[in-house]
Specification:
With 251 residues, the protein is mainly α. The protein folds into two domains: 49 residues, Orthogonal Bundle (Arc Repressor Mutant, subunit A), CATH 1.10.10.60; 164 residues, Tetracycline Repressor, domain 2. The protein is built from twelve helices and two strands, in the order ααααααααααββαα. Strands 1-2 form a two-stranded antiparallel sheet. The protein starts with a helix and ends in a 13-residue tail after the last helix.
């Protein structure tokens, strides 16, 4: 590579310094959220912990919302990484085991990082609105893709389209049709309905535990969750028809 090409390909010293400073600010903000909760996020306190002024912080994040968006996107990415690692640890197991691993990876991250999980799924921060199709949306879709893959692995598009979801209204079918990719197509509306219902069930149990509403179960919360996820997956798979057996051609 010519010297000119190398210089063009590498970030400049200023860009590298900016990247380091940005990472330090996000790390400091994460620590503040972990200690005080997301609703107590204070840009002044974050800046003070780094020995800088609020005006200096605004040089890297022009508003509170910009910093919140970075925190939310990173939390989603870290959660998706935890789910991915859990699935990869059982990569050679059947799809049902991989789905359970994904669900348990999701739960473990949530109960270990309660404040960051609350930033994602607790009461919305006042006057904050995530940018449409921004980094938070992309990071959330990455995690949804993992659960979709493990939940429906081994089923054809035709099977998923024929899943028993009772009657979906035409309006709902139209709303669900483009939501999730499925190979070269989109996930059929019946399968999307099953996926969203499963997500609500899974996520609801995790929220109850992470926010302390099932503490009366004590040390058995993980066992309750695993049993519920097994029953959930079994129920979904029973709604998907078996693939017709191929008939041999007549002699």
């Amino acid at each position: 590579m010519a010297a000119e090409e190398y210089a063009t390909a590498q970030p400049s010293l200023r860009e590298r310094r900016r990247a380091v400073a940005t990472r330090e600010i996000v790390d400091a903000a994460e620590r503040h959220v972990a200690e005080h909760g997301p609703h107590a996020l204070s840009l002044r306190a974050v800046a003070r912990s780094l020995g800088m002024t609020v005006q200096g912080l605004y040089h890297y994040f022009p508003s509170r919302d910009a910093l919140v968006t970075a925190l939310v996107a990173k939390a989603y990415e870290d959660l998706a990484d935890a789910v991915t690692s859990a699935v990869e640890a059982v990569a050679d197991e059947p799809p049902a085991q991989r789905f359970l691993a994904a669900a348990e990876g999701y739960r473990r991250w949530a109960v270990t990082h309660v404040e960051r999980f609350q930033l994602l799924y607790g009461a919305p921060l006042r006057q904050y609105e995530a940018p449409a199709e921004g980094p938070t949306t992309l990071a959330m879709r990455r995690m949804g893709t993992i659960f979709q893959r493990e939940m429906f692995d081994g089923f054809t598009t035709a099977q998923l389209a024929a899943a028993d979801t009772r009657a979906l209204s035409p309006a709902l079918r139209a709303q669900l049709a483009p939501l999730f990719p499925h190979g070269a197509d989109t996930l059929p509306p019946p399968a999307t309905a099953l996926l969203l219902g499963a997500w609500g069930h899974l996520h609801g149990l995790v929220v109850l535990e992470a926010f302390g509403h099932t503490s009366f179960v004590g040390a058995h919360q993980a066992e309750i969750f695993r049993m519920a996820m097994r029953d959930l997956l079994d129920g979904i798979h029973r709604r998907i028809p078996a693939q017709p057996e191929e008939t041999s051609a007549a002699p």
